[in-house]
Amino acid sequence: MATLDFERPIAELDAQIARLREVLQRGGTDDDASAEVARLEETARALRAEIFRDLGAWEKVQLSRHPDRPYTLDYLPRLVTDFVELHGDRLHGDDASIVGGLARFAGRPVVVMGHQKGRGVKEAVRRNFGMPHPEGYRKARRLVELAGRFGRPIVTLIDTSGAYPGIGAEARGQSEAIGQSLLAFSRAPVPVVAVVIGEGGSGGALALGVANRVLMLEHAVYSVITPEGCASILWKDSSRAPEAAMRLKLTATELYRLGVIDEVVLEPLGGAHRDPPKAAELVHEAVARHLDALSALSPEVLVEDRYRRFRALGDFVEETEGVSAG
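The structure corresponding to this sequence follows.
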């Protein structure tokens, strides 16, 4: 498993524990060695809890990009049953960076979709590192329209650094495809629940994020731009990305405080990659709770609820010499 810089003290303890366990396996019962393993395990748990309690914005950006972090196709078998993937946008082709189709969630027929980054070089290239082309967003729009036609709730999993900015994508109408996806989601007459499971970057993420309820995993991030991109624009220096991450207010805690998201879904200690089944269980519980509540609303109320939710973003009150201005 890959180790981030701030995880190195924990990794060193884990390595000691692994070596002692190997000794125990070769040599049989050894009370002193067993006691030392137990002590080191407790020390590692305490250290992990301490480190992850005080993570900064940049550390969370790194966690959201962790190479072992679960992706959409890691979550789907644990979230839904009877998944049937649908392909293509009926205009140009299929985009493997967005996967989606029909499924059952807790026995309820749904449409589910999400970004897929791909694991390993070959798969990551095939998935375009989770950066969709226009045909990916047109596929998403097609799925949204299908959900509306058959009255199926929509669940989306967001994990992209942004839409692909290549010349081909622009030539095929990248911005128009994103806009049409936003429009389709905003008009969907069914419940929509979105979960940011890793990176949520710019319009590439928002195109799957116009939902009645937007949830975020504890160590996910959601922002109008990557910290590196922000630092390059503001200061002409991408090495200031950690500072940009702090200023962007892109963590789940900050975004919940600002009202951009509706719930922070806790992760297993050490991050979702430490225990993917448990992470999926926590996501399932949160999505199920919100779908149950939203399913009581009429199509008209669902659309209005979504409109009001996003229309309210950015409202603020400024205090100036005792006078409040909105």
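The mean pLDDT is 91.
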